[in-house]
Specification:
The chain has four helices and no strands. By secondary structure, it is mostly helical.
């Protein structure tokens, strides 16, 4: 699943493709909470991971908390 599957606004899509962390992270939030799409946690994690590589603080928190939650299972 790619970021372009969730982004309709062309400027937003171009920003994500250029590597802007926010447009890469936001689809992950949408997928996590089912905002405009069906929830899908694995794809949300993939989207957020792209932003983590760019030091996006909210994405780092999301990925870290998801890792901790999975270790509890």
């Amino acid at each position: 699943m790619s970021t372009k599957d969730f982004i309709v606004e062309p400027r937003y899509r171009r920003a994500a493709e250029r590597g802007d962390a926010n447009p890469q992270y936001n689809p992950g939030v949408m997928l996590t909470f089912g905002q405009g799409v069906d929830p899908h946690y694995e794809d949300a994690f993939i989207c957020c991971r792209k932003s983590v590589n760019q030091k996006h603080a909210a994405a780092q928190y999301y990925v870290g908390s998801d890792f901790c939650d999975r270790r509890k299972d």
